Amino acid sequence: MILLIKLILAHLIGDFLLQPRSWVKDKQKKKLKSPKLYLHILIHFALLFLIVWDVSLWPLLVSVGILHFIIDAIKLILQNKATRRNWFFIDQALHIISIFITYYIFTEATFSTAILLSKNNLLLVTCLLFLTQPVSIIMKAIFSKWNIEKLTKGNESLEDAGKYIGILERVLVFIFIVTGHWEAVGFLITAKSVFRFGDLKESKHRKLTEYILIGTLISFGIAIVTGITFTVLT
């Protein structure tokens, strides 16, 4: 497991700490002809050997480095300006997956699907997924009786910002509850109230205040009930 952590650490350092923004732009522009691409891969090879510090594992380290180059090359060839954001996440996911696969192929480590698919893990994934898009849709249905656009006219927010904020706060509340940190839930509610106070004070709109208050209570309430349900069932 320590070896796996070292491989991931080498990836994080190479991709995020030792890759200047200028290199990224050069690779996007020149693609496979960019010398920064090969310098980037060379740095990854160096980091793998330095951090792992075990030459006997060279087949594993070389395989990780080669796969990193292949994944980066595919991304550079297929991505365009419109898909760069999506390819960033695809690229990082493929890198991590390749590290895990290579690690299990070249070591004696075993992977048990029974542990991964245990009751507690499946319940955890189910609860977390429920608190994302499903709850967002449920809340949208609840608030469909009110026209929020009239209340926020001239003061629109970022696209889908409210949805993402709601998802993050529900996931945080769930984590706080299942780890036994109820006080953190109160801190989160207080922090959100402070940030919202200025908007509500300036709007002087009772309907908007009620809308935000109802939304916050429903969102936190669902997260709390989900967290309690998880702790009871596990």
Question: Would you kindly provide a written description of the structure presented here, covering whatever features stand out?
Answer:
This protein is mainly α and 234 residues long. 79% of the residues lie in helices and 0% in strands. It has twelve helices and no strands. The chain has helices at 2-17, 21-30, 35-52, 58-78, 84-106, 113-116, 119-130, 133-142, 148-151, 161-178, 182-203, 206-233. The longest helix has 28 residues, at 206-233. The chain is globular, with a radius of gyration of 23 Å. The relative contact order is 0.08. The model has no long low-confidence stretch (mean pLDDT 89).
Short characterization:
The chain has 234 residues and is mostly helical. Helix content is 79%, strand content 0%.
What would the keywords be for this entry?
globular; 79% helix; 234 residues
- Cα-based radius of gyration, to the nearest Å: 23 Å
Number of DSSP strand runs: 0
Low-confidence stretches: none
**Helical proportion, percent range:** over 70%
| Topology order in helix (H) and strand (E) letters | HHHHHHHHHHHH
Terminus-to-terminus distance? 26 Å
Strand percentage, roughly? Answer: under 5%
Report on the biggest sheet. none
SS content category:
mainly alpha
Q: Mean pLDDT, nearest integer?
A: 89
3D shape: globular
Number of helices: 12
SSE diagram, text form:
Elements: H1 2-17, H2 21-30, H3 35-52, H4 58-78, H5 84-106, H6 113-116, H7 119-130, H8 133-142, H9 148-151, H10 161-178, H11 182-203, H12 206-233
Helix pairs in contact: 1-3, 1-5, 2-3, 3-4, 4-5, 7-12, 10-11, 10-12
